[in-house]
Amino acid sequence: MIKPIKNNAQYEFSLSRIYTLMQKDLKVNSPESDELEILSILVKEYENVHFPMPKPKPLEAIKFRLEQKGMTESELSEILGHRSRKSEILSGKRKLSLAMIRKLNEILNIPAEVLIQAY
User: Fold this and answer.
1) In this structure, what are the phi and psi dihedrals at residue 93, rounded to the nearest 5 degrees?
2) 1 domain residue, yes or no
3) Residues 31 and 13 in one domain
């Protein structure tokens, strides 16, 4: 019977079990594939509570996403619609406007909650 993960020992055991299950060729909807799915959900929840990941700062997120997508800062200027403001924004001298946040969210898929943070 699978139980909630309440301590680090149970967490480590669950990780080990997940690893073991992932090495197998599991059939969909088999008891072991269900176990893998449930353990993964429990581990994710335990990690969210005990090892929370801080949100990246807006400028870090923009630079990271540009790099991920292989885009240049010139392409960022096109997204923002202001060639001169791009360097001011990336240096932190100018804040993002609501319109810029919307475009960055839509085009670069950066979550709005990351972009609206103070920096």
Assistant:
1) -80, -25
2) no
3) yes
**Residue appearing with tokens 């055991």:** 13
| 3-class secondary structure, 1 | coil
Same domain, 69 and 104: yes
Q: How far apart are CA 62 and CA 26, in angstroms?
A: 39
Successive 10-residue mean pLDDT values, the chain, 119 residues = 96 98 96 98 98 94 96 89 80 91 96 94
At residue 12, the pLDDT reads 98
Dist. CA 51–CA 16, nearest whole Å: 18
Does some domain include residue 18? yes
First to last CA, the chain: 47
The answer to whether the beta carbons of residues 17 and 39 sit under 8 Å apart is yes
pLDDT at 33: 97
Measured in whole angstroms, how far is the alpha carbon of residue 102 from the centre of its chain? 18
